[in-house]
Amino acid sequence: MLPAECARRLMAEIQGALDACSERQRQLERSLRVSRRLLRAWDVDPESWEPAGTPIPEPPPGSETKEEDPAPACAQSLQDLKELELLTQALEKAVRVRKGMSSARQRDRTPSLTSASTVATAGTTASAPSQASRQAGNRASARPTKGTHQAMDPAKNLPAHKLLSVRSKTPVGAGAGTTKHEPGLRDQQTTAPSAPPRTTEAFTLKEKGTLLQLPVAFRKAVSKNSRLWAQLSSMQTSDSTDATRAAKAQFLQKLQMVSGSSRPSAAEIEAEARSLRKACALLRLRMQEELSVAPADWMEEYRCLLTLEGLQAIVEQCLHRLQELQAAVMGGLPEPCAAGKATQASLPCGGKADLSWSPQLLLYSSTQELQTLATLKLRVAMLEQQIHLEKVLMAELLPLIRTWEPQGAPWLALCRAAYSLLCQGGERFLTILRDDPAD
Amino acid sequence: MGRRRRREDRAAGALPEAIAALSRSLPAGPSPEIFRRAKFDRPEAAPALWQLLFRVLSPLATDKTGATLVPEFQVRLVKSVLRSQGYPRSVLAQRSEGNSQSSRELLLALSWLLARGPLLEQLLAQSRVQLGDQVSLFEVLARPGPPASCMEIEGPVDLHQVQWLMGKLRIRWRQLLSSQQEHCSLLSKIHLYTCGSHSHQRFSHLSVAETEMLRDPDNTQQLLQALECENVRLEAALEWRRCELVFWQWMDTVLGACTPGAPAVPSQPLTLPVIPERGLGELELVAWELQALQEELQEAAEPRRAAWEAQVSSLGRGPEWITARKTLQETVEQELTALQRSWEQSGGPPQLQRPHRLVRSKDGTPGPQDLQAAEMIRMLRTQEASLDGSLRQLQDQCQQELARLAGTLPGLIWILAPGH
Question: What ranges does the record give for the region Disordered, renumbered to this chain (chain B) (predicted)?
Fold first, then answer.
């Protein structure tokens, strides 16, 4: 029914809009998946994970790693004790029996720092055997390497009592390797009750979220990163020496001279097209403002007249510029291919990009507010899409209706469909009745 | 003598160092040796430089895809992007051989890109490790890949199909809105639950990326590595900025070494098929709009001018009359120039275009560059209202036009849908 060219263009545009929406939907769903997973109970490995993110399993300062020096059990502040209790309870709740946990995952995980190991700085490397025992109890694969690495943090002089009692609830039988390094464990073992399986209460963000803490190495990297960005951006604003700027300008000029052609690039043409479109919208707005106010006296009339004529002149200029652009595009076409468009967005020519390193914040105060903000953003984007499609439809369908002579049923159907698409956003239809004179 | 030699040595050493810094700061940067060979147009330097330009110019190129793409495709893409950016040298475009030629031209192209703007900083900003929940204020629903302008249509297309597609689009919009709502509520919860875990001076909760990192230690490794890579590149970029002068002096010599070819010849169009893509279509749309506006203005202005001319004779010609007219003319001119300037500026204050980190905070003590959600909401609401207005106005226009066209037919009754 529709001519092929017209149909092709229409379908292409609408399909493009559909694709854009699907892409956005995909992105949203990816984020949704991640967020949902975070809000559920976390699937954690109690051995190698703890809420207060200890340093990354990078080789920490050598003195700590592979040494099993019994740090003296010092006195600690009440605060530390309380913290420890909290952590202990969290750990208690975080133990699960994990079946089928891929051994690969364990192998890759370098000796991570359980709070037990950090805590067991009271000299006991007892965590090693208890770890081993627990592993033996819980998993098929033994991890001998894990036992040997004690990434202890001697800075944290916390007593191991509570924690070790916790740990020793597990069948310590296989606990083996009771070396000379476990002075502290013995007394704990006496107090160890028989080993009931741990409560499998998992970690949820809701309850324990506030205990989380970013790892130190990470924080260092982030601060270094911010510092470097600040330096780079200040270097740019204060700008490199004049000599460098002059050298660059000279190079560009020479290149231009040697090469010859100086057409406006496709990127520039597109930018101008965008700006002209904005111009049209603003001019139209202004015109409507003028026309909506009835002039009170001759001065207002005159002003209105002058404005309208001024607007006319501007529109003339814009049209003229547009013709120039069209001519440039026609002759020696630099086609704005898709990749070009994408890079245009990302590499604004002439370096107008405003680089900022500083983390600028967008503050919101309630879920409601956030939702409103996001909804409005989306609605604005959708409206722009809709307006663009409306213009495309107008440009394609109205000429068709004008030029179709046959006034029969197909033409009426076209009119009806066009009306619904163009005037009602495709949501409602109208009815056409033929009013035949009564016979 | 010795001092001069030492100075020369220093100068000679400065160039490779500068180039090495440049390479380190670029993704897939080749070694300084490649650059040197490219000056002499050696063919073995070409593949590395094609690869580099591809990585620089194509936002799609990442570590994984870049290597697997056919070199031919890389070459074509680089050429076409350079052209669309307005690269003046046509030698590269004219040579239809692929990979192994024109290393000197590639070097010149790279230098052109570097000289024009802060390319390094832009590249770094593009690939920047994002730790926060980034929100950008102007969201554009842009189609992901190349436009489907070569869509094959099977059979005649009915307007019903168009209607169906539009309906599909409306459903997608609704879906997007509801997914977005859910996402926001989840984000808000995560922010709420992790309050107190971040040590930043201005906010205290974690972002999704940070929480995810804590949940999954493998993730931590990845993020750390990414951060460290970026830090290395940043340091290299700083070094480059300090010593780039020597590079530009060298590039002058490279340009000089180019065979003075036939510069003034206008480039032949590529053998690639010239598909009038969106660029042409956009111009046509704008032209159509402007012409419609022109007609409307004419319709409005002409009768007013006629009425005015008729009236003016009866108003007398005193001196204050002339001054009054003059002042009016000047005011109108000023207003119109201001209007013209308003669209010539780039859209929106640049601050709003950058993505911001989303942060929940009850007591709003915003820093100098922070935005508040309430203000943004107000701004977006006005924008929404104005877009709504334009849409309605377009629809009204269509309605009038259709009424006019269909009104020529007698004997038909048009019943509009209820609620109109």
Answer: 340-369
